[in-house]
Amino acid sequence: MSKVLEYLRNRRSIKNFNNKYNIENKELDILFESIRMSPTSFNMQPYKVYYIKNKEILNELHSYWWKQDSVINSSGILVWTVYKEDYLKEIYLPNQILKMVPKENSSRIEGINKGMSYIMKDRNISFEEWAIRQCYITLGCLMPVAKELGIDTCPIEGYKTSVTNEVLEKYNVIDMKKETIALACVLGKAIEEQNEHFSKNKKRLPLEDLFKII
Ligand SMILES: Cc1cc2nc3c(=O)[nH]c(=O)nc-3n(C[C@H](O)[C@H](O)[C@H](O)COP(=O)(O)O)c2cc1C
């Protein structure tokens, strides 16, 4: 059996964390690397990721994050941000392309620009929305790696975007003119009492409802 599949099968989105547990820097390095190595469309990596363990910030976020206790009891939160539409299109993506492709290769650069514009139009989405989608791919890559390290996770979409941005700017984490929160994931260690039932009782649709081989 695949080891990665085993981690996916056995992981749960943990709600109750041991508030004494700290993630070591060398573990964080591995988690960051799992995000960095994730594939993204045109290899643009259009995100930044902050690991927030500062209790003052977490306490302040708690009430805007649906009062989810994992926000204050976990070891910390990974927060993905993306650049806002204009900055992304005008500054970030052109710079990023030049990091990947030599500027002399104008036909390749034009090809990437055309390809990206095609996708946004065809899917009827903004560049910002496309960038947010890339964050979710990295979340999917992160979680089995965390499980392998014995670190529990819970993805978080349950927050109020506008106030979160304001709090993060107040603490000089982000620049709201350019950045907005895209996604989050709490990290830590489940409390011992997290019952066996919860960890084993993983619910999924049956294979036949989801897949068809043609
Ligand atoms: C993108 C995303 C956002 C989520 N947001 C929340 C959240 O805000 N709070 C929460 O308790 N769980 C959240 N979850 C966890 C899901 O509810 C959970 O993954 C799902 O019920 C399946 O359970 P499992 O992860 O334990 O297998 C989120 C999951 C994903 C993938």
Describe the model.
The chain has a single domain, classed as NADH Oxidase (3-Layer(aba) Sandwich), CATH 3.40.109.10. The longest helix is centred in the middle third of the chain and has 22 residues. The model has no long low-confidence stretch (mean pLDDT 96). By secondary structure, the chain is an alpha+beta fold. Helix 1 crosses helix 7. The two termini are 25 Å apart. Strands 1-2-4-3 form a four-stranded antiparallel beta sheet, sandwiched between helices. It has ten helices and four strands. Bound molecules: flavin mononucleotide (FMN).
Number of H/I helices: 10
Number of domains: 1
Please state the CA-atom Rg, rounded to the nearest Å.
19 Å
Give the name of the CATH superfamily: NADH Oxidase
CATH architecture: 3-Layer(aba) Sandwich
How are strands sequenced across the largest beta sheet?
A: 1-2-4-3
Q: Round the mean pLDDT to the nearest integer and report it.
A: 96
The outline comes out as globular
* Ligands bound, unique: flavin mononucleotide
pLDDT < 50 stretches:
none
